[in-house]
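Final report, Chapter 2: Outcomes

The project's central promise was a pipeline that accepts a single protein chain and returns its three-dimensional structure in a standardized token representation, suitable for archiving and comparison. That pipeline is now operational. To close this chapter, we reproduce one record exactly as it appears in the project archive, with the input sequence first and the structure output second.
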Amino acid sequence: MAARLSSLLAPERIVLSLQSAKRTAALQETAKLLEADPSVVNFQGFYNELLARERLDTTCLGNEVALPHARTEHVKKIVLAVGRSTNGVLFENSNQTVKLMFVLGTPKNNPTDYLILVGALCRLIKDESSRAALMAAATPEAFIATVIELENKLLGPVK
């Protein structure tokens, strides 16, 4: 697996204006983008594990970014959906407001790719100008193009 988030992104799995301001509703709104993904073999099972993980501990990374995730047998390969909120979503379990939510499902038997991906995401969003560029993207396609541009700065162009 490539350590590039862009390889997992698709316009139909990105919502740039979350309607929900509450954590669980926003999480559902974003996760639902994965319901039709062929790599998700049991969406309800995946979603239930996502909620269970979220109850254990906050998935906020700081800087208005959250990474709700589940390592589960309900996905065949890593899946990713993105939710963005201009006003922010309150993650009451950490008392943080989140504007970018990356919902990740990863197979239980593949912790290495999961860790590589989380590391790549953290590097991508640590810079305020990078987060601002992601917040400014006008369309899902522009969001993906911004991710590719940021990855190329960090990792060099794809060979």
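Archive annotation: The helical segments are 23-31, 43-56, 111-125, 128-136, 140-155.
This record, like all others produced under the grant, will remain available to the consortium after the project formally closes.
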